[in-house]
Amino acid sequence: MAQHFLLSAKARTLSLRAVFRMGEDAAYQAFCEMRWPETEGEAVCPRCGCVEHYNIATRRKFKCVACHHQFSVTSGTIFASRKLSFTDLLAAIAIFVNGAKGISALQASRDLDVQYKTAFVLFHKLREAMARELADQLNGIVEIDGGYFGGYVKPENRKEDRKDRRLKANTSGKRQCVVIMRERKGRSLPFVVANEGDAVPYVRDHVGTLATICADEGSGWDALHAGWDTRRVNHSVAFMDEGVCTNQAESYFSRLRRMEVGTHHHIAGPYLQAYAGEAAWREDNRRVDNGSQAMTLTATAMGARVSRAWKGYWQRVPA
Questions:
Q1: What is the DSSP annotation of 213-270?
Q2: Tens digit of each residue's pLDDT (9 = 90 or more) over 233-268
């Protein structure tokens, strides 16, 4: 039997031991090279684009020769106003990508000896960077499926007081549907809607007209026949029928469910889209070694703008 990729040595190209051994100077240089790859780590002014600068070595900052603007390697990125050292940032990213089913902010706060708030915001910034890498247009054979999250209603203690929670009148109204679109042997794109049927406009915007769509028997997908070559499989009869299946979409939900049940325990509400995007990124990169995942995510984060949603998050949230 062939060995699974994740069990092979090829999947392990980065470890926490290697991160902490590299030291602060090497970690800082790695961030510089990922921020300015076109100049091999030499600083470029983010305001005027000038490549000539003065080094302010005591504060790890630069001063532009042309406009005299002072900036650092993390200025204007999602790591702006950071307080963690560069070594700790790389370690946090390594811990984050090593979690096949995600990693909780509480566990990371213990591993890095930082506050829970620090790990929570940092990981959400990384999820925001992950969303920049997700596909925008899908083609070929695209599998579509939906799964419902959140809105749990606790049953009453006594049997005679319990209600049928399947009825709409007895729901909390907080349940949301994650819809995943996955190219076979390709990329993924998730989004959050109220019901499966509400996903059709998103499909129209992100799936090419020449694509072939595979979906299950849910009535919400009936409208897809008008615009695409749509093939259906009735899961009450078979999971695959003449090559038509949604197994790739089900694989995505398998990961997302295990993230919910085993790691985060509650991922609904306003954060559901972020966790759905993280699961899609992990699915798309499941055959990539962890070192390449960490470097790709770091480079993407260094290319992202300051997070308007997460910078100063705990200062805006009432205690």
A1: EEEES-GGGGGGGGTSEEEEE-TTT-S-BTTB--HHHHHHHHHHHHIIIIIIS---GG
A2: 999 899 998 889 999 999 999 999 999 999 998 887
Residues 6+ apart with CB under 8 A from 64: 45, 47, 48, 50, 52, 53, 70, 71
User: 23: which residues sit within 8 A by CB, 6+ positions away?
Assistant: 87
Which DSSP letter does residue 6 get? Answer: G
What is the rounded distance in angstroms from the CA atom of residue 95 to the CA atom of residue 105? 11
- Retrieve residue 32's tokens: 């510089």
Alpha carbon distance 174, 285 (integer Å): 31
Mean pLDDT of 187-201: 92
200 & 261 share domain: yes
Q: Is the pTM of this model over 0.85?
A: yes
Number of domains in the chain: 2
| Per-residue confidence band for 6, with pLDDT thresholds at 50, 70 and 90 | confident
The answer to whether residue 183 is domain-embedded is yes
Sheet holding 70-71, edge to edge: 53-56, 61-64, 70-71
How far is the CA of 316 from the CAs of 79, 115, 178, in angstroms?
A: 18, 17, 28
For position 172, what pLDDT does the model report?
86
Quote the domain boundaries for residue 19.
Answer: 5-132+304-316
